[in-house]
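Tutorial sheet, problem 5. The four components below are modelled jointly, 812 residues in total.
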Amino acid sequence: MTLATVKECLNQISTFINKLPSLLDFEQVEKMIDMLIYAQAANRSIFVVGAGRSGLIAKAFAMRLMHLGFHVYVIGETITPAAGKGDVLVAISGSGRTGIVVTVAQVAKQVGVKVVAVTSHPDSPLGKLSDHVVFVPGRTKISDETDYFSRQILGIHEPLAPLGTLFEIAAMVFLESIVTELMHRLGKTEEDLRARHATIEVP
Amino acid sequence: MTLATVKECLNQISTFINKLPSLLDFEQVEKMIDMLIYAQAANRSIFVVGAGRSGLIAKAFAMRLMHLGFHVYVIGETITPAAGKGDVLVAISGSGRTGIVVTVAQVAKQVGVKVVAVTSHPDSPLGKLSDHVVFVPGRTKISDETDYFSRQILGIHEPLAPLGTLFEIAAMVFLESIVTELMHRLGKTEEDLRARHATIEVP
Amino acid sequence: MTLATVKECLNQISTFINKLPSLLDFEQVEKMIDMLIYAQAANRSIFVVGAGRSGLIAKAFAMRLMHLGFHVYVIGETITPAAGKGDVLVAISGSGRTGIVVTVAQVAKQVGVKVVAVTSHPDSPLGKLSDHVVFVPGRTKISDETDYFSRQILGIHEPLAPLGTLFEIAAMVFLESIVTELMHRLGKTEEDLRARHATIEVP
Amino acid sequence: MTLATVKECLNQISTFINKLPSLLDFEQVEKMIDMLIYAQAANRSIFVVGAGRSGLIAKAFAMRLMHLGFHVYVIGETITPAAGKGDVLVAISGSGRTGIVVTVAQVAKQVGVKVVAVTSHPDSPLGKLSDHVVFVPGRTKISDETDYFSRQILGIHEPLAPLGTLFEIAAMVFLESIVTELMHRLGKTEEDLRARHATIEVP
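Model answer (structure tokens):
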């Protein structure tokens, strides 16, 4: 076997990640970073939420924020406390329509939490209700516009990675770049992160 | 249908819970409460761990400790930070032999964490390595001694609830009683707990 | 210290569990058991959902259903597939008003899933939309009627266990009795359960 | 502010993903794919495990395998059943030394499960005990060799992304390419995946 599909998929993802910086709006990124730093400075908490694979990306981001010393919680985990005024919710949804993420964002707004949406669809229900939107490209599960979107925006003729995969990878890479910027601005070294890294790790 | 099994099982569990106070060693309980309060007073963290259904009981306890204002983390969740000297690990295992719980307790000891075992088997590997053991009765997955244990200690002739069920229920009830004692000693009301209860709840 | 609160709390929970069988409606229980067995017989799946501590009780029940050989999934876990016609959702909420559980139950109904509510409030939003309701007593987080409810129904003068604790314990005990009845009806032994019990356990 | 760190980090990750195909050993990839397909053909299960962020990548992969129709379970989740002879464990650890992942792999071997390691360190404890190793590049938490490794292998002068980030991204991208290859070989379309995608999604 030639593994042609593996290779072509790797090439497409590589092409897509190469284009990612040109597709981001860095003013949106700057404002998101400010919101995180201001919440921390005010001793407030960051909450993250996402459904399915976007939820896993949200958790990966939360883990690094914890390493950086933020008060950060994952919606739905055991020790997540009350959220309230001054806190920030980072809500991740490619389509911006995932029912439960929209519901969580609505409840968050009602209790005074600022919502940052990370989505490919700023005009979605999630985008519209959020205090701030960061556009992250990706085919999403809403595939009507797939062909146009993939060819024109992502530069991929026939995307192989299914469903929300490209958004999820883009979101993960984007959020990592936020982490390095936060390290830089807060003067944190890798050793600082390592010092807070779980010493008792389990799956 | 008569639901005879449902009814008999409810009766057995009731009999067992009735006997629970007479089977606990309240000096062990007192010391566990002290360890939790001293950790909090020293601004240290509580970690909880358990595998399978015991892990769920551990999480239920952690949630109430969070409501009470403790710094508490579940081993294996996203934002669990490094544990270290002065922290306390509550390790729950009926048999005291669950491989991963024993491993976690060993690692915890190595980094200076005090380990409290909640187990039916104080002589087990977990019990032996722990700094403090609280005996909580229950048939456990080690069933060799089941018949004797059930008849003599638990007062149940032929226990219906399978595997570790009785231990898990006893552990849950026992840990709830710890929570009410902590409320009493720390002067916390139900309103205080409600104020920290997650405002954005998801499954 | 005398641990008076621990002891009184244990007594209250014991009193409450003693009363539990007289507070259940066994026709409701029978119908719930039938729904589970019929779903399994038709090769359909059981889904469980609950928020916070009720979600942990839901998971404990799901684990035993898996041991019994049911196709069972926890809403929100990684490998939970599409639900559809003929499947059953067991939704656990003491108050019957937990926003996200109600939302999940609504979505489940829309895709043809039968919903069984386990709740202290059959007249709640969850109770009203469910195909079947099983009443399980307990003080719940809705505490307006607490005094009356606790004294008259639960037989406890001033309940110590905070918030939803009594419901959660009652739900756990009740669901365990369902497990033993299912073992009986399906002819499963403890060895059968043990054979499906996770061999690689982690917290 | 110029967001220079965000931009440089995005560039480094892009450079790294571009190099990824040339760093993989496609014979290793082919054998991993075969092991997954043979397990499915024999009606056996796939288990996945990883600690921390690698565990999240493992879950993202498991979710897609479920969408593809595999019997797949995440070690540590509620309804994960017994593993045994003929099953496959995919263990993800950049360093290959994460204590709990090594322990899980050892237990898996003892019960007859074939272990596939996805790691940057084939000579690690995990690599050595596994039945099959797939090398995925990345700086890992073992940073002694960081400078050499980053400059020579990854083509990055001073990597900004901290700790295991590069491995985690590479593992996610690599596993996505496996998913598309499996779709191709099993003749599955995006619609097939969508049909199994959770209809009741929560965080």
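Marking note: The mean pLDDT of chain B is 89. Full credit if you identified this.
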